[in-house]
Amino acid sequence: MSEPVAVKLTAKDFKSDQEVRWCPGCGDYAILAAIQQFMPELNIPRERTVFVSGIGCSSRFPYYMNTYGMHSIHGRAPAIATGLSVSRPDLSVWVVTGDGDALSIGGNHLIHALRRNVNLKILLFNNRIYGLTKGQYSPTSEVGKITKSTPSGSADAPFNPLSLALGAEASFVGRTIDSDRKHLQSVLRAAAEHEGSAFVEIYQNCNIFNDGAFEQLKDPSTRDDYLIRLEHGQPITFGADGQFCVVHPPGGFGLEVRETSAVRPEEIVVHDATVADPAYAFALSRLPGLDLRNTPIGVFRSVDRPSYDSVVQAQLAAAKATVTETPEQQLAGLLGSGDTWTIV
Amino acid sequence: MTKQIRQLDRVVIRFAGDSGDGMQLTGDRFTSETAQLGNDISTLPNFPAEIRAPAGTLPGVSSFQVHFADYDILTPGDAPNVLVAMNPAALKANLADLPRGADIIVNTDEFTKRNLAKVGYQTSPLDDDSLAGYVVHPVALTSMTVGALATHQVSKKDAERSKNMFALGLLSWMYSRPYESTLRFLERKFAARPELVAANVAAFKAGWNFGETTEDFAVRYEVKPAKMKPGTYRNITGNAALSLGLVAAGVRSGLPVFLGAYPITPASDILHELSKHKRFGVLTVQAEDEIAAVGAALGASYGGSLGVTTTSGPGVALKSETISLAVALELPLVIVDVQRAGPSTGMPTKTEQADLNMALYGRHGEAPVAVIAPRSPSDCFFAALEAARIALTYRTPVILLSDNYVANGSEPWLLPDVESLPDLRVEFATKPNGEDGTTFLPYLRDPETLARPWAIPGTAGLEHRIGGLEKADKTGDISYDPANHDFMVRTRAARIETIPVPDIEVEDPDGDARVLVLGWGSTYGPIGAACRGVRQRGLSIAQAHLRHLAPMPANLGEVLRSYDKVVIPEMNLGQLAHVIRARYLVDAISYNQVRGLPFTAAELETTLEEVLKNV
Predict the structure, then answer these.
(1) Which of A160, B51, B78, B125 is the most exposed place for a label (fewest CB within 10 A)?
(2) Which residues in chain A show pLDDT less than 50?
(3) Is the domain of A148 the same as that of A179?
(4) Which of B318, B316, B309 is CA-nearest to residue B340?
(5) Is the pTM of this model over 0.90?
(6) Identity of the residue in A47, A79, A315 whose CB atom sits nearest the CB atom of B295
(7) Looking at the 3D structure of chain A, how many domains does it have?
(8) Which residues form the Thiamine pyrophosphate enzyme TPP-binding domain (chain A) (predicted)?
(9) How far is CA A131 from the centre of its chain?
(10) Do residues A200 and A174 touch, judged by C-beta distance below 8 A?
(11) Predicted pLDDT at A6
(12) Which residues in chain A have Cβ-Cβ distances shorter than 8 Å to B286?
């Protein structure tokens, strides 16, 4: 592969010639535009960037990026991307997936990619519904969701994607929202810089089958009271004039939201994404209620852990370093190893 | 005393004992000694799926059969001339396979009331006349081993465990085997525990010396070296040969080999072997499941590796969707199916050829792939290279159908000259291929191979998107156009059908045979041995064996139609026969057996003679 040449790219360079075919008004448009605009600042040549997706509305994403891309099969993108990433450490590999693709049919691959810490940037577009199959409930739909496949309301409890990722030993976990381009880009920037798996949940509106699912987080009249914007090193406060804050109540296991005026300043938790114990980020992930109140966004967790790719490549490099022969000589030696005998 | 020495042309020995008795190792060492002597060899291990079934029970019996001769042989032998039975269960489980007059060496120490009761013997078969038709050699293997090691610094348990080396020593003496390789082996195996090296060597020598001195063994046998082509040989199992073939494919293509695998019997040994060859740039990933294993392999192929996944039937079923994706993406991928008896978990350590239909047809949509099958353990090496050649040249998934019989069986292998192996180098796309000089068309085909360009990520100017949705010819853009889909489906079929494969060869030494036996895969040995037997009786019969099952050789129809009758023996219920009947309208006679064991040459011989009578 040739060495990358520094060329200043723009959002336009990342747009493919394919007509974008999501429904008008879909949150995916905003995410696509934000990513196309953000990619140039990574300074990674387009040819070194690969988007791999599974199946679902979000998984059409690679077709619209003028990079390398593969639209694969349902749920398997993390597995395919693992093979690509570990064998090609020179590439920047991104996985685009949805709540059905990643958490239902592909749940196993997702947790194992995170556990291994494969060098993948995993973007989960969560709209809490199956869109491409026209409106069945998903593993992130709220209990009691009435859909075509659950006319009496869904009976099963949803996954909390961030809790799941943290339980799977993810080294980087973040959340952002389709409509907040600046915030989305800031989280992706941090994800891109992370060595190992970076898992980012993006709340995405499906205006056809689950419209307004995250409206309280977007509506200017409610969002400040609902959203907790996590900033590393800053006390966690939110609401008008920092009306609310997050504390770690003595004797409790998790975090709780309080009126800021009711607690001493030193009781307010200062956000630290680098805390080794995943219990902290897990507690953050458990703050939101069913009504989306107290939803943290930002980088929950970002810790250093060797990526699977780097460990595997180091083993290969160490083995290859001992080689003094040509591959053919090595092969002849290997074939003739063990107990041999010669017939003349 | 001076022992009589008798010359034999061939011998079949079966070592049988409890799973924990080390029979596989004993058989393996005897095989290695025999190989050193220059006999032709064929082996057949037979073991339970349970790692340690309850001791002394019938399900816990593990055996290893070795056939060696002073001429070229094709099978591990139908029936043992000698059975080494380490306990009553081993005797009971194997007795039915022995012809009258066979030698049975039994470990009398294990013939206790309790052990006899475990397998339903009311009285000891050593004490009644139930073994009257055999030559029984009662040997107190365990106590003599323990006695021989009395002065050694090993526990009683370790001393008892060395009894397999006593047995090996005795058999090595009986058949005049050179044992230096075994002594070297023991030194390597127990390098960390010198006291165990000494104990095992002492046990081996005690067994050898027992044979030399006891009057019970009056005859010693010799089997002269076989006439084999000059060159350097090693004894090799199918799984080992297949692994080396994949390493060789990496060397000859210049591509890194990437193996994605999930442990499954009887394919796991390929993963174990390939994980040792990082020096060659072989990268192995033990995936979370079968689907991830093939997915990772496909991802690696997309990135420019030779992607390989190894499994058995249940794993292929799980990989099916990804193999179809590979058909759509038109990327190289080698899928190794070491077949075992199914359906479902079936009999994981027993052999079968029942995945042919799945390999040929087991995918959604019209999803043709190339399919090839090795005919013997050492042939697995060349079959792996051939699978890689087709995958890389024609950018297609290739299913390699091995099975438990060739995978775990072994035979001498004349080591090939590395330079004589096929050149598998490929060219990645490096520049736009459109007429305007700037456009890249990922589905513009090579007119000769119908392969599309392999443009790997990292290549500037060739950024493109591929996927499972139907693609427009040439551009690869998403297309729902009816005519395009029809064209692409037919093109994918043609891509496989037009892969040039060698013509099938017919072996008919008499030249006037009217009956052809057609086989595929691991039945080559038993069919060949049966044909020899038929010919020795003065009858003519022709044998042809398929390596390429998709596409099939161009001359196959003509060959089939030139015989009055075609017999197709298979270890399934007639899967190849179905294909042959459908494709060539030949009224083939299907002969089937699904017992988890390879055909015996004798049963095939009988079948073929029946057919010949009616021609």
Answers:
(1) B51
(2) 1
(3) yes
(4) B316
(5) yes
(6) A79
(7) 2
(8) 55-202
(9) 19
(10) yes
(11) 57
(12) none
